[in-house]
Amino acid sequence: MRSSIRARLAAAAATVGLILAGLSPALAPVAAADPLILRAGTDQDLQVLNPWNSVVVADFEVFTLNYDLLVNFGQDLEPVEGFAESWDQDGTTWTFHIRPGMLWSDGEPATAADVVYTFQLILDAVDTDYGCLGQCYLDGYLLNAGVTSVTATDETTVVIETEFENTLLLQSYVPILPEHIWSERTLEEIGNHEGVEPFLNEPPVVGTGPYQAVEFEPGNFIRFARNPNDWRAEQGAADEIVIQHFGSIDTAVQALRTGEIDYVRGVLADQFTDLADEPDIQTVEGIANGYTELSFNTGGNSEGYAGSTAALSDVAFRDALGYAIDQDALVEATLGGYGAPGTTIIPPFHTRWHVEPDNPRTFDLAEADRRLTAAGYVLDGEGRRLDKSGAPINLRLTWPDSEEENATNAQFIVEWFDELGIAVDAAVTEEGALIEAVTGPPFGPGDYDIYMWGWVGDPDPTSLLNFFRSEEIGYSSDSFYSNPRYDELFLLQRAESDPATRKTLLAEMQNLVYDEAPYIILYYDAELHAYRTDRFGGWTNQPSEGGTPLFGYGSFGYTKLTDLTAVPTAEPSAAAPSPGATPSPTGGGGDSAASDNTPLIIGIVALVAIIAVGFLAMRRRGPRAEEE
Amino acid sequence: MSGSYLARRFGSALFTIVLIILVNFILFRALPGSPERVILRGTPNVTPAQLEAARERWGLNDPVFPDQFVAFLGATVSGDLGYSFVARGQTVGQVLGQRIWPTVILFGLGELVAIVLGLALGAYSGWRRGGPVDVVGNGLSLVLYSTPYFLLGMALLLVFATGLRWFPTFGMLTAGADYPDIWARLGDFGAHLVLPLATVGLGLVGQYAIVMRSSIVETLSEDYVTTARGMGLREGRILRHHALPNALLPTVSLIAINLGYVVAGAITVEVVFNWPGLGTLAVEALTARDYPVLQGVFLLLSVSVVLANLVADLVYGVLDPRVRT
Amino acid sequence: MTAAGASWSPPIPAGRRAGRFDLLFRLIRRPEGAFGVLILATFAALALAPELFVGPLQTAVTAHGTRLSPPSAAFPLGTDELRRDMLNLTVHGARVSMAIGLLATLVTVFIGAVVGIVSGFVGGRVDAVLMRITDFFLVIPTFVLALILTPIIRDLVGSGSTEILGIRMTLIVIVIVIGITSWSSTARIIRSQTLSLKARAFVDRARVIGAGSGHIMRRHILPNVINLIVANAVLVFAGAVLTETTLSFVGLGDPFQPSWGQLLEAARSVGAPGLGAWWYFVPPGVCIVLVVFAFTLVGGALDDLLNPKRRGRG
Asked: What angle do CA A242, A245, A247 make, to 5 degrees?
């Protein structure tokens, strides 16, 4: 009997094993030797392999691994060879020379026809009722560059005509797709329209990028394998790349410490400080290409807007409040000291274009008070600031619930403005409702006073300049700022190919917005990344000033990595190689365990204490129970 | 079991499911902000045509009642829960499908462990009331019952993963690992499973032990047990043949009814351990305000609990002659 | 549902009316009752007058410690990432957590009692409909419903910093959501008690002398179920504190009025567990466990005291 039970149990266990093993799709192709895997963690959701559906940074990272842009980004974001190996510009006509003999990862030839197919896809999509492709983040790159036609004159030559002379085409974040795969799908399927089976571009993905997605668990991870037909002379050491999603960045940092992953994007401030002392871990503080701002409803309470006071429309009022915000304190408290106090609307990340304001404001509540009074906003007997109609100024301050760190900023702003006699009613707003509220006429109510949110830009600053244009009111403009001079400058800078002249134009725009203060830039966020230095070397920041090795601009950083595991260690190999290929979660343990003992001890003490309390309580209950 | 009992139970379950769908429908209409705005946030140059196209895509242009409701009911019944706002291009069904198994495994095993341990502990404590097992076990059960799951999970994570490094800190499998054979894969899975499973098991075991204990205490004071004792039956025999079967019935039924509460714990445990299941999905959807997915999770979990209850009712009906009416 | 009833605590027929102080006295004569009452009294004192113990709630601007520093003489429980004193935050957190728990309990018990009494007393169609709804809330995973409801209701009532009883609107929404989603087991218990009372002679007598339904429910049924309501409220309170904690933990709390759950969420979001900053999450964590534990002890003790079935078997 006994043996038969055991046999049945074994059979049952085997069955369970089979079921469990079947849970994960597509067993990995077994490599001859253990592949060298680079694992990178992010807290952004991994849901996309179809590049047109990209929204978050991780999505862009994924498609630039799979595909090349027509022109890639170099270490300092300069244009370098991508799908095209060289190019010439003659006024509004561009000629791109495609690398002869290049192959897609599946072995098909990659030619000028693929470029034409991809760009035409966007131009066709723009002509449909829907107006763009997928999530509509990529079409803008061709539209801003004014592309009107794309033709292939032969297998290796693409000619592109633009509406006006500019160089934005060299910065277009558009992946070149294989026509032989994608042309089997309709525009609707690719663009993810309602009522058709969407094209998800499931693995194995075919591209010309250095690595191709071969396994995808949506929301969990994407695994990439090296492109066998990679054209690059310089290839990264990683045989495979796994981009892993983490629900909380804390877990990701733990995994980095234990060696389960090699790279983390978006480390929190205090973790970042803490990681600096960790052996084999390097931290890198990059500057984000963007900022967090306090936006004013410059429409005030005029027709079509629902601000609580006309003062919001007054430049003098907004300027005065600019003296009541201590950007340094916010950087210290909210960002934990990482990042930089904000000034103008082009972040310092754009070293070529950023300027500091000609007339900077400094934190000075007395000066703010003086300026408010001078502008006609006086205090009443109860110390309340009055607007020009004599009503007390009470401002509503909000921020989206998706960006909770703004609650910290709000605590400061409430107290600073309170010093000036301005009551601030601060509360978070659900993101969807907030977007609705901060949309201007004719499509939205323009219903807010002041609010905080952030923007993230492209390699070119144009997109960050867009939402101060008058014609964006009702669309992307949330401050409802309108200034004909600004609108004019925007068009001039976009068509300007001389960098010096363009910088002059951009400087004027930055000062204009700074002085008139539709936005007060609170800070330029930091990009806090960390990586292990014991398995991979060759980590290269992109851009070299203020950049990070990965999650930057394209696949550049991955191609620079070198293998450190191949270097023989001082110890003889007797030091127990891990058994087989079984992934060992304890890999790299031990080394820093000693320094990590505090949480362990505390945890045990806390547990014991809680249990002891319960035990004591029940002991008292014990005898009574017997009496019953 | 009579036909009318069956019909009543099935009818009641069906009614509850229709109510769930109705609640889902009302919720979806009451959502703050309009979804097309949420999804188009940050998109350069959103045109009215794009907004309109988006409204069209999500069927927001039809009258709410009856068109949208009828469409909603039909779609839900046919398994069409719409498209995720976040997982672009994927239906809610697909998104849920990817996340359902991890949750089923974690909570299936967790429930199993907790039921076996909890009922055994509770039965023994109740039987040997005031004994050392009762005193320690009951105290522990009460403390565990008072501890939010995520707190328990954080403590275990801190001690056994971050501190001692005995177990991996996150996920269900080492991402992208190559496994030489199925056992290596299973081993990896097992290592990842230990801590979340322990959290779920510990979180539930307290409740089950408490219920089982009081149920046994209650049963042991019933007249027939007293009679059995009077007849000189051995205690062990009384426990096995009289007290246990009778105490088990209400306990199992209560466990079924309380499945709905267990779900709350499910959500936070998965978040703490980055377990790729429905709970993590629910919180991600909440953070991103991905309402279609959130509603899908609600629908799926609710219907599962209703069905589990139905099964428990039917089993109860078979076992207990008193309800076969 | 089934014959087994719908709650962990079996229905308690109110045999006799005990004076409030009499009940409290009997409660604290039991060791576990005394222990529970002691813990609760301590936290009630902290919640009633936190300023008395630790001064006003520290804000980002008034904080004066160093960032995330471990316990020291000046800061016995260390500081958070905004340089605030954790002792100050934990004590003020008691007020927020207990206030939300209390209000949510009142709402829950009120809805539960009204539904239970009306359903049990009126009977018929009303009973059938109300019990269907009750069963619905009993069986569905109400926490998931709460997750969806909170942002929606927050938008409906507007989350301005209007305060009710010193509690910000965002937290009032949590109270409402807990109330809406957790009254069903109370309703079940009260209904079954009402059913048994309805069959008793004094109700018939009242009816004979011409008392209206509303009068009977208020004057005859309610006083006889009040003990039951109190015993149930204690357990509801524990549940409400746990639910609030969990909702805050997934990010639905209010950083301007930090509850213990909100503190835990903040601790997690700055990565305190990984940083070894145990002083950030251990104090609120222990407080939550203690309070829920104490309520469970008191609830159990009350159950024993008020349940004549148990007493009879003693």
From this structure: 155
Distance (Å, rounded) from C-alpha B307 to C-alpha C122?
Answer: 31
Check CB contact under 8 Å for B45 and A220.
no
Contact B30 C245 (CB under 8 A): no
A449 close to A297: Cβ distance less than 8 angstroms: yes
Angle between helices C86-122 and C222-247 (to 10 degrees): 140
* 3-class state of residue A161 by DSSP: strand
Structure-token match 């309470």, residue found: A301
Find the chain C residues whose C-beta atoms sit closer than 8 A to any C-beta of A.
30-32, 35, 59-61, 67-68, 81-83, 151, 154-155, 159-161, 168-170, 251, 254-256, 268-278, 282, 285-286, 289-290, 293, 297, 313-314
Q: Does A430 touch chain B (CB under 8 A)?
A: yes
Q: A254-281, pLDDT tens digit by residue?
A: 889 888 899 999 998 988 998 988 899 9
Q: If you average pLDDT over residues A294-306, what whole number do you get? A: 94
* Tokens 């054209």 -> residue: A231
Spatial separation of the C-alpha atoms in residues C59 and C257, rounded to whole Å: 10
pTM above 0.90, yes or no: no
Note the helical H segments in chain B.
Answer: 3-29, 35-40, 48-57, 69-77, 92-127, 132-146, 149-156, 182-220, 223-230, 235-238, 244-257, 259-273, 278-287, 291-319
Q: For chain C, which residues score pLDDT lower than 70?
A: 1-21, 158-161, 307-314
Residue corresponding to tokens 């409660």: C27
- Model confidence at A588, in pLDDT bands (50, 70, 90)? very low
Residues of C with CB below 8 A from A617's CB? 31-32, 35, 293, 297
- Closest CA–CA distance from residue C82 to any residue of chain A (Å): 6
Q: Residues A280, A237, A571, CA angle at the centre, nearest 5°?
A: 50
Name residues 197-216 of chain B within 8 A of C (Cβ): 207, 210-211
DSSP string, A408-474: HHHHHHHHHHHHTT-EEEE--B-HHHHHHHT--TTTS----SEEEEEEE--SSTHHHHHTTSGGGBT
Question: What are the two backbone dihedrals, phi and then psi, of residue A277, each rounded to the nearest 5 degrees?
Answer: -90, -10
Residue A522 tokens read as: 């609170």
User: What is the pLDDT averaged over residues A388-392?
Assistant: 92
Q: What tokens were used for A417?
A: 């403005």
> What ipTM does this complex have?
0.79
Helix C278-306 with C20-28: angle, nearest 10 deg: 110
Query: Given CB atoms, is B291 within the 8 Å cutoff of chain C?
Result: yes
As a whole number of angstroms, the distance between CA A329 and CA A342 comes to 12
Residue C18 CA: distances (Å) to CA of A188, B178, C189, C224: 73, 69, 20, 11
**8 Å CB contact of B38 and A193:** no
